[in-house]
Amino acid sequence: MQHLDKHLVDELAHVARESVRAELREQTRGRRRKAALYAGSGAAALYAGAAVALAVGLALDLVLPGWAAALITAVILAAVAFALRTAARPDTPGSPAAGGTRAAGSASVPPVPSTPPTVGTDRVPGTDRVPGTDRVPGTDRGPGDG
């Protein structure tokens, strides 16, 4: 009986492994195809961008010297690259956020007050005096009483 149970468990584990493998193969095949299509579209976009840059340079070459046309084209491409990088980069700590500036390495933390809060207490901050009187809390005497 024990041998039959062990055989059944081994067979069940084998079937489960094969089922998981087949499912993973199918998912991987679809993802590989999608990745290849993305890579192909990226390469085509790169060549299209190069052709546009060449066309801009040749158009500028009609009215300017060749070196000036190439320089202007390079500056335009650098500006586009900078704009795309800026648009893609998430807010970095220390850069101005929508609500103001943040300290480096900090999240949205409210500023720390310079004096401790006095709500719910009957003392003046930094002293043992009760506001509006010279009385020390917990006693019935003032500073001159001995």
TrEMBL record:
Annotated membrane-spanning segments are 35-60, 66-84
So which domain of life are we looking at? Bacteria
Region described as Disordered: 89-146
Its name, as the record gives it, is Phage holin family protein
Per UniProt, the ranges with Low complexity bias are 89-109
Q: Identify the species of origin.
A: Streptomyces erythrogriseus
Keywords, comma-separated and alphabetical: Membrane, Transmembrane, Transmembrane helix
User: Which lineage is the organism of this entry classified under, starting from the top rank?
Assistant: Bacteria, Bacillati, Actinomycetota, Actinomycetes, Kitasatosporales
